[in-house]
Amino acid sequence: MKKYLSILIAVIVLGILAALALIYVPFKPTPANEAFPTDWKAEPGRGEAVMRVGDCMACHTAKGGEPMAGSRGIESPMGTIWASNITPDKETGIGNWTMDQFRAAMVDGIGGHGQQLYPAMPYENYRYMTESDLRALFDYLQTEVKPVKNEVAATSLSFPFNMRFGIRAWNWLALSGESQFKPMAGDDQQIRGQYLTEGAGHCAACHSPRTSYMAQDGTRLSDKSFLSGGMVDDWTAPALRGKDARIQKWSTEEVAAYMATGRNAHAVANGEMASVVEHSLQHMSDSDLKAMAVFLKTMDGQAVEAVPAKLATPGPRSMAPLPADEAGQATAALLKSASPDMPLGARLYLDNCAACHFTSGKGSPEIFPELQGNSMVLGKDASPLVALILNGTASLKTDRRPMDLVMQGYADRLTDSEVAALATFLRKGWGNQASEVSESQVSKVRKHVQAAAAPERAN
């Protein structure tokens, strides 16, 4: 008994010492990975370009708020995290920060006042950025962004997530390996694409799964689960690599066009991906978009395809709808028959969906996405598809594709059993192979959708 008591006391003492170390042992920031003269300046426009790749605007700008002034609520499994003010305001922003403090925030997740930042800030990925890009971004934020005085509400999470010193222990688990970009064995374009994807673009923050302790399970190419798919705010972030990755069936040009416009002949961006296209990707140079597309298409050793000099040229275009392929012919024939005794899901599709997505399930290129092979339709979790049917959606308008397109929601038109039948039909039609959707699943999603909409109606 005394032996077990001694072990218990030893464990408690070690736990206390570890907690004290996390709180009081000074933090040693990661040093710069490049040396620069004190008077070094980035070329004009580079800082803004880095900001766009990093998608700073999307998280640090509240709805209806001033650019970069913070106060946007970032939902997480632990609660709402309030994005900080990163304008150069000296009282409420980062106007008094030094370059060393900024680097510590971007690479180590340590704020200007020495506090641990919550990993809603993707420093797991930004830590692979070059010092020159970090300096260019810091200079842009300090000299080209309008200072805005905005005191952001303090993030207040429940215990134990409110104990920020615990994030230091989390970082020991999550920030594995050196904060140094490790290029693949490829040409300059592939390496540039890899750098943008792994670092500032932080694609793994959504498209890699999460570990049991909520770290990204794969932040760089050498990691097995890198870009193998994840979930973000009830939206599916599909796999970008592997045999089941839909984009691996697209051409490199189609991948780049999707990033530039939020659409291509196969898909239309929704949810968080639409936000990324709106605030980040559409503003990037064609050369960087092509580099990312080439990397995504060749990261596992695939051959490099030629990409046109200009992407997604603006202006009217004529693109004929595709006919049903061999896998989809049986479903297309069923729908064309319009038989009164066809299954409920097929009848609901014919009544509500076929005018836009067609009996072929191929949709209208760059306008209404194809449903055959669609990553959301086939997701392991059908909740995002059900939510889309209930809520509807609006296609993102971009500079190169300014069309204003809306899909209505069917929450008031279809019952839970009807939505389940329709969703099941989509997941099994045209050769799709995914599980059925139950009425109880739809009911659960409907309640969640209604609860999320309640605060908006109150405002």
Description of the structure:
Strand 3 and strand 4 (235-237) form a beta hairpin. The longest helix has 23 residues, at 2-24. The protein has 459 residues and is mainly alpha-helical. The chain is globular and about 75 Å long. The strands form three sheets. A two-stranded antiparallel ribbon has the order 1-2. It has a two-stranded antiparallel sheet with strand order 3-4. It folds into three domains: 48-150 and 164-179; 188-298, Cytochrome Bc1 Complex, Chain D, domain 2 (Orthogonal Bundle); 326-458, Cytochrome c-like domain (Cytochrome Bc1 Complex, Chain D, domain 2). It has helices spanning 2-24, 46-54, 56-60, 99-108, 123-126, 131-143, 165-174, 188-198, 204-207, 252-261, 271-279, 286-298, 329-337, 344-352, 354-357, 383-391, 416-428, 439-458, and strands at residues 73-76, 79-82, 230-232, 235-237, 393-394, 406-407.
Features:
459 residues; mainly alpha; Cytochrome Bc1 Complex, Chain D, domain 2; 3 domains; two-stranded antiparallel sheet; 18 helices; globular
